[in-house]
Design a protein that fits this description.
Layout: H1 8-19, H2 24-31, H3 35-45, H4 50-58
Protein name: Transposase
InterPro entries: Homeodomain-like_sf, Transposase_8
Organism: Myroides indicus
């Protein structure tokens, strides 16, 4: 699997933007990613808080 060109902080920021009303289509187009990538990020990081990411990486 290819590594992401986006840091975890960038991904979380993107997810927050979606939560504040920006559409998945708009965000995906701006970042040059497929919508499925966004939904994968949401599945993987959506319920995490910034403080819990470090624990996730160590696991």
């Amino acid at each position: 699997m290819e590594t992401s060109n986006f840091s975890e902080n960038q991904i979380i920021k993107t997810l927050k933007e979606n939560g504040q009303g920006r559409s998945v289509s708009e965000i995906s187009r701006e970042l040059g990613i497929d919508k499925s990538t966004f939904y994968y990020w949401r599945k993987k990081y959506g319920d995490m808080k910034k403080t819990s990411i470090g624990a996730f990486k160590r696991a």
